[in-house]
């Protein structure tokens, strides 16, 4: 399956999941079975769904007509495969096991998986649960029901092909048999009906008539006169092709089949240790938020608090493609800066699905607010030597004009940098919008969307060599940003040593930053100095910092300098295939965010959505 199609499926699953989440305390997701030629695909999509939802796995295996050795080999393959994909396995239940193998298989599971703290249970084969009802046979064969509609709930244990003489066929009858015979075999039909009503012979499930022949009128009239006739079905195919089709009939546990549901509950209660299962479910640890959930939440939050974002680089085709998505999904309101004719030509050249007449486009040189913005900028910067003429010239730069829109309240935020440099994007914001009163500097974070979780890296783009005080500020505001976007902050201030194991100027700087951060925000979790492996790996953390509430579970990583941070985020992005959303600027009074000049359409969409959310919190 193409990744694009898989993403569409996963997005739909998340939407359904979130709808259920609003009204349910517990959600059980049934994944696909490993049947037929698509078993490899089924495994891949099950992994994708599991990781997308951040759920634990309960492996349910089918042991019907398999030896203990066959079950063990299959189970090892599937369990190892899920572990290799870093899926969390809660337990293993093997269903439909032969009664004689229950003890042996249970001992094998105990010896093999007890060290993993899994639930392991073995449930014996139950004929009643595995058998289809006459209704299911009729539906799956697309058979016509001739008689006995009120008894279509009869269970079918076996199929008896009655092509022989009735005196021989009658000796082969067993309880809940479905007798299969051609429609013109009146002797077999009458014999089966009589045997069913005789106390000396088994109770049958029904009769299935084959071939294009029809019942003789005399037999049909006789059956019609019975008060409680057996279900009699008819198909127009010959007996042996029909027999082959019967082998594909399967039984499912339907919501309205209370009898089978009650049998299932009885079996489950008897053979599965419910107290252990409940304990394991209660002990499930949610390792942060998954990337798909993260982006879903971003879009839903932005939609719920719709904001107006200005994009100064309206002539760039990537910007326009992103705008097409953002506006079609009604996520944000957009203003584009640039010459209308040039923007229209770009839309036509790239075949972008955008209606130019519905776009809010401003050409700074023609804007009716140019004079107002000129006066405002002049007043804000005249103490820096900016004249009125200088201010007007500066506003011909789309980055300055967009920043003035945000400053004046005509837009809630700005995203730029697809064409312009980082300096061109950030400089106007620092000069005009400035930092929040409680912060002394602007810093940045990246949201690192790994395969199964989202981490926050800061500062990887702005501050080259922060002091201890600045590192503390970066740690605090990064934790706040993390909270804003649904990532619980456990902040690791990174260094080349953990705890008190190292000495040196760089280690001391991180140590002091940690002390300052804890003092300023005792409500947040900080740890430092700490090495990256101790911050992310619970095993390493248990050795190096066993008493830490952050070690092994960090979600926010504060790097000691720009060189380390920038190289690390790029290395992680390259080696793991992680999506890096950012840099997201933090500390400004109003949100302005920078794009990489190599940004993709998806990067632009994500950054605009994040900017809108920042604006709603401001």
TrEMBL record:
Domain DRTGG: 136-248
Keyword field contains Acyltransferase: yes
Keywords, sorted A to Z: Acyltransferase, Transferase
Species of origin: Crocosphaera watsonii WH 0005
InterPro entries named in the record: DRTGG, P-loop_NTPase, P_AcTrfase, P_AcTrfase_dom1, P_AcTrfase_dom2, Phos_Acetyltrans/Butyryltrans, PTA_PTB, Ser_kin/Pase_Hpr-like_N_sf
Record-given protein name: Phosphate acetyltransferase
Pfam families noted in UniProt: AAA_26 (PF13500), DRTGG (PF07085), PTA_PTB (PF01515)
Function of the protein: Involved in acetate metabolism.
Residue intervals of the Phosphate acetyl/butaryl transferase domain: 293-612
Gene3D superfamilies membership: 3.40.50.10950, HprK N-terminal domain-like, Isocitrate/Isopropylmalate dehydrogenase-like
